[in-house]
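re: ur question from the group chat, yeah i did fold both. here u go
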Amino acid sequence: MRKFTPWILCLVACSGCQAAQLLPIGRIQGIAHRSPYAGEIVEAQGIVTQVDKNGFCFQSKSPDASPETSDAMYVYQKNTEVHLGNEVRVKGRVEEWTPGGEDSYNLSITQIRAVAIRRIRSKAPLPKPVVLNYLMPDYPKIIKQPGSAYDPTINALDFWESLELMRVVIMDASIVGPKSRYGEIAVRIPQGLAEPRTPRGGVKLTGYEFNPARILVALDPESELNYSTGDRLSTPIQGIITYSFGNYKVTATSRPEPPYTSSIAAFSISDPLPDSAFKLATFNVENLYPELPDEKFRALGKIIAQSLQAPDIVALQEIQDNSGPKNDGEIGADQALDKLIRFILEAGGPRYSYHQLNPEENADGGWAGGNIRNAYLYKKESMRLGKSYHLKNPVFDKNKDRDYYGTRKPLVGFFQNEDRQLILINCHLNSKGRDSSSFGALLPAVRFSEPQRIAQTRVIRAHVDELRQKYPNAGVIVLGDMNDFEFSPAIQNLTGNQGLINLVNTVPLANRYTYIHQGFSQVLDHILVSPDLAGKLATQIVHVNADLSEALRASDHDPILAWFTNW
């Protein structure tokens, strides 16, 4: 066997470097989120457990005596020549690196910016991974708050910090958040305490500080395997605890096998409704434009014609213009709507008419150039469309007030048959994209997007009250993607003080979700009706999308169906 000669790689001239002391990795990490040695030159020794283009993770051969400290660190060294399983001694400056930058409100990761690396052994056994299942019975339910002492037994952020960059394994995991386009899934660790569950096997969001025993898992984004809510993984997940985009996650170092698929099928209406039932629905169809594959339109058509049983009126959100995301001056949206209607017919549905109003070019929110808007599909034999208009107010127009931007104007439509009138307000309110994370550096988490939705729903509520006074015999319905929860202040603006009735609240709690974000099944879509209509309508959320892996679904939202029982 060829004898291996240790070597030293000098990355910078070290003649002026301060003397370094050899320290255990756990001591460098410290009993805190930030290293007590930040800014100092140290040496540390460990085994390489993962290598990427910017450096590598290494971990002590054996754990130290403190469960409060992580035994692993990141070493920043681009184009590194180390390999998995090398035992190395690293000299460098300790830093706290924040993914996304200091303005991102992310937590920091402790790392060493290497100035010299010495390879001790070319191949050493990898440190034994921590089995997360064994820790979950004591998993803390509290998310760290400002001023609280570091304690991994009490605070969830401290719990994950004590495992930062360490090797872990999860056994018998079940999917609570389907695979995203970024190759991430959310998994539930079965030994965690019970939490509200959905019939499919997800986790129902119940409040702003909800913290179940779940974690994101970053898989190979190039993998063609699909994972949907309720699937169980057939093999253990092995990986390293990392942090990015406001979340702790396990970056998988093993390749999971295909899942054991749940026996629970996608939900649909169990009993056909009578032909005489008047049905209406709301459905976010996720950035629809003509050039998207026919398969997406075909799936949407099947959902509307079959799963929703061809409602008399469908309020649609996220219709882009004819050129989609191209910023080319196009604002019309007839091609996508015509194509959708064609595929509804193919699925056995009726020939719908549609209605939409073009937005001002690039004045409404969403994809630059997409000119996203709301629209209605309706059956002319059921309802005639009267007047229609955008609900205009500075809170919906980025060109009028710099504090309110990135939203779509509600589309008001007056629908009438022989003796009944419905006034619908089709909404797609400001998204939550700017909110800080519950697992971030800004605590409590700040809902930066919420003031805009509160202002928007105040305007909508004022218009609802005006319509109810002006048209006392008409039913008023606010529906669409409100981008907020049933318990949120924005929705309470619409329901409080003898306001509208939220039909979502009539759906059993376990089934009450239209969207899944990072493993949390939550309500973002709503149908709210004037009190005179509430007792005449039944409601169901039709779970045909949100639980499914991104590659398998037609949209990221589930539609809501309501129907009159005695209208």
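okk and heres the other one u asked abt
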Amino acid sequence: MNAAKRAEIFRRLREANPKPATELEYATPFQLLIAVMLSAQATDVGVNKATRRLFPLAGTPENILALGEDKLKRHISTIGLFNTKAKNVIATCAILVEQHHGEVPRSRAALEALPGVGRKTANVVLNTAFGEPTIAVDTHIFRVANRTGLAPGKTVRAVEDKLDKLVPDEFKRDAHHWLILHGRYVCKARKPDCPNCIIRDVCEYRHKTR
């Protein structure tokens, strides 16, 4: 795919959704961090149901530490891998309080040093909470990047590196959200909705649905 096509794809996505946002519900960078940690192998809908109960009671690292791991597990028990996630959330909250004055660090290295926080989670937080032009590659973005020809790659990191190199600077801040939403609702895994896709004529997928 050439540069003109890539730019046209993002122009159309921006025109359709000028201010894209995550579908996770949060009020602070800390709440976003926790929501993203909980979202691994879970849906945003499921995470939001749990955090709507959790955050009013414990919306800061100090409050979650006071809540304790057992009670935290009860609040997030509807989410997959909740035992491991609760352990990581508690450990992360302790580090935030002890090393960062209860604040979420704005550094990739510091974020990735938190238990349960990998590169993807760090990228989401840096982008959504702090406005950094990072692109977190999840299954949706990986699929869209490969299927459309936008930034094909065999691994998540390869796709991320290509997107970072190839996405025009004016679109980088919002590219993460545009691509996730496009993959979630249009360029779906089992049957992409090509007839209703706004980029179908510039997409290089050979097996478009009718």
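fwiw on the second one: The chain is about 60% helix and 0% strand. The chain has two domains: 3-18+134-196, 29-128. idk if thats what u expected
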